[in-house]
Amino acid sequence: MLELASGNDAALDMIIIRYHKPLFGYLYRLTLDEKVAEDLVQETFVAIYQQGQQGIVPQRFKPWLYKIATNACKDYWKKASFRKESLQAPPREQTSQVANLIERQVERQWMIDALNQLPIMYRTVLYLRFYQDLKYSEIASVVDLPINTIKTQVGRGLKKLECILREEDIRAEVGRR
Is pLDDT at 106 greater than 70 in this prediction? Predict the structure, then answer.
């Protein structure tokens, strides 16, 4: 960001190379739509570029990046077009070539499906904590909440997730009988 703020536009390329994939993964998990996630990633990088052009350099880049992305996601959800789209079920595409990969993907998809049943705030803090590996203090700055609130939301989110997984496990067990 220092390079970008000093006028080196090529610095944005390095930021994109480093953060595109994890940022896309985070936004995809929140939106469940590849095209929307990619649009939000682009919007995030445009905002970072604009901030850099204004000479803004955050103290801690990663939480700042995720805050911009989270806000872009919130803005997307506020739009009327999202409300119309959300009435339709998101497409589920799962492809893989190797049995081991399929098994891992099924387990991963099972977890993601369970996470997606959580209210958005729990889902957001859990994704930031466990998929993006942010610290509680960084999550607090991303979502503009006190750190103790974040700790509470992570704890409650994990408890709700455990209940969802237990219910699904019971349903699967009953289905096998």
Answer: no
Per residue in 32-50, pLDDT (tens digit) is 889 999 999 999 999 999 9
Instruction: Please give the radius of gyration of the chain, using alpha carbons only, rounded to the nearest integer.
Output: 18
pTM of the model: 0.62
Q: What is the 3-state secondary structure (H, E, C) of 38-107?
A: HHHHHHHHHHHHHHHHCCCCCCCHHHHHHHHHHHHHHHHHHCHHHHHHCCCCCCCCCCCCCHHHHHHHHH
Contacts of 41 (CB under 8 A, 6+ apart): 20, 23, 24, 27, 69
| Residue 13 shares a structural domain with residue 72 | yes
Which domain covers residue 143, as residue numbers?
97-177
> Within this chain, do residues 104 and 140 fall inside the same structural domain, yes or no?
yes
